[in-house]
Design a protein that fits this description.
By secondary structure, the chain is of the alpha/beta class. It is built from seven helices and ten strands. It has two domains: about 45 residues, no CATH class; about 170 residues, Rossmann fold, CATH 3.40.50. Strand 2, helix 1 and strand 3 form a beta-alpha-beta unit. Helix 4 packs parallel to helix 5.
Length: about 230
């Protein structure tokens, strides 16, 4: 093994205003009373949809990927976001699903969670809270909670917000929800370029393995890959 000495890191801030958002609806039964408010919040997000790509997840006992056409039809026909779950909602699976859907996207990534800030006891049964936090941080995904009602925010959701650099935005008005866009655009995201001289023997026609760990702004990323010398 050879250690790289004095690597040079060039950082290029992404000036693009493109935003990729996964909207997760907490479909716990207690959220049904906020159904109309959530529709107002969704309309606020969609009205300013230029340069934004959306995906939608219904957080139920069996999390479901949704689309804007289905949501629009449900709102038009029933004045509702659809049925709510009487069983325990799988928050962990829903948030993992939302993050996975953002992996193929570039630019800014964010999960926007419509919730009253309450979690059931099995909310992080399959994936631990730390697993979700690490997954988001390592893939530069911020977590934003759109808070409905006046209940205290569960400490696990607060931790997820804090660790990913997101925010809690109380639902208070049509304009208030769109504040999330301003916060997302403040994210510093971009491309890292690592330049170095390999100190080992320069043997041609051979693969060299490279392992890199970067710790920047209290966020850690690690990767391994190989390159070919000819």
């Amino acid at each position: 093994n050879y250690y790289i000495v004095n690597p040079k890191v060039a950082y290029n801030v992404n000036a693009s205003k493109d935003i990729n958002i996964a909207v997760v609806f907490d479909k716990s039964s207690y959220m049904k009373k906020y159904d109309l408010d959530q529709i107002v919040g969704l309309n606020a997000l969609m009205e300013l949809s230029k340069n934004k790509n959306f995906s939608f997840i219904n957080a139920t006992s069996v999390p479901i990927i949704d689309n804007i056409e289905s949501l629009t039809n449900s709102i038009r026909n029933t004045s509702s976001l659809g049925p709510y779950s009487t069983d325990a909602v799988k928050t962990d699976v829903s948030l993992k699903l939302a993050g996975s859907g953002l992996m193929s996207k570039s630019s800014r990534r964010a999960v926007v969670y419509f919730s009253g800030g309450i979690l059931n006891r099995k909310a992080f049964e399959k994936y631990s809270l730390d697993t979700i936090v690490s997954y988001y941080k390592n893939n530069d995904i911020r977590f934003y909670l759109i808070l409905f009602g006046n209940d205290p925010v569960n400490s696990k959701l607060q931790y997820l917000v804090n660790e990913t650099g997101g925010a809690i935005i109380p639902f208070s008005s049509y304009e208030g929800v769109s504040k999330v866009y301003d916060l997302i655009l403040e994210q510093k995201t971009g491309t890292y370029l690592l330049e170095y001289y390999y100190p080992g023997p320069q043997e041609p026609n051979k693969y060299f393995n490279l392992s890199v760990e970067a710790n920047i702004n209290q966020q850690t990323g690690r990767g391994e890959f190989a390159y070919f010398i000819n």
